[in-house]
Design goal:
The structure is a single chain. By secondary structure, this protein is mostly helical. It is built from eleven helices and three strands; from the N terminus they run βαααβαααβααααα. Helix 1 (about 20-50) runs antiparallel to helix 3, helix 4 runs antiparallel to helix 6 (about 135-160) and helix 9 runs antiparallel to helix 10 (about 265-285). The protein is globular. The N and C termini lie far apart (about 80 Å).
Length: about 325
Amino acid sequence: MNGSTVTEFVFLDFSGSRTAQLFLLTLVITCYTTVLVGNLLIIVTVQSEPKLFQSPMYFFLANLSLLDISMGSVAAPKLATELVNKGGTISFAGCMAQIMTCHFFGGGEMFLLSVMAYDRYMAICHPLRYATIMNRQCCFRLIIFCWTGGFIHGSFNAVVLSQQPYCGPNVLDHFFCDIPQVMKLSCSETYIVEILMLISDGVVTLPCFLSLLVSYVIILATLCGHFGKGGIKALSTCGSHLMVVGLYYGPIGFVYFKPASGNQVDKMAAVFYMVVTPALNPLIYTLRNKEVKGAMGKLKNKANLSISCCLNRSRSLELPFPAK
């Protein structure tokens, strides 16, 4: 802990009436339930449908759902507990672990969104070479790169912050440990740490955002004048992806690319990208994608058939009462 005397951090409760806090608690529980159920359903659907599982786009979508479950699980349960108890605490080690996992899954999702944009670029702009380039081995390598890049990013941030001394106060005006709020509690000069954090975030965020921007500029330029059936389908798929990108990068940019104020707006923005966005992603992809909806319908029919078979089998095994 490098000379730190702080062994735990205290989270401040959300200000406002108890009614507003209960509304937020209901929102968090609803969104987290949607995160778990919706994203698990997408993963199971992709795994159970060979046509989807063999498609790079849906293979990446299943991994995005796994990252959304992980990201939502970092803060949502803790936030719900804090809203019930009107505040909470976390140990120093737990705080560093929360920072690590948050930026691990967040960085991994940034890399994955860029990979998904590259996949759409290859499918739309180079359709004849698409199957050869985006083969199974290439997809697995890209996924390993996303998870490894996120892990390195999260570990670096946690290690750098853990080396700072924290002598008090230990109150965080937030609902989870995040870099700007924790850095303000350090009792030493943080200029070098701020530079390192800026480099770390810039190395991940800037290339990912630029790759997304370039990919979709080229895609939209390619689709101009090709609005047939295939063009409309491709544009719809890209539209879903762009909605997810906007919902993810918008709140993150608002929180991290301005001075940390610790006000309620910052907290609500953090709630949005930590809890609400992972819940919206499965809704966006399922409501706008006929293939996913069709595969879910097949999965539902298989489940109903399995239940019916089990019920019929149990009835056939029932023995009649002996006649007297």
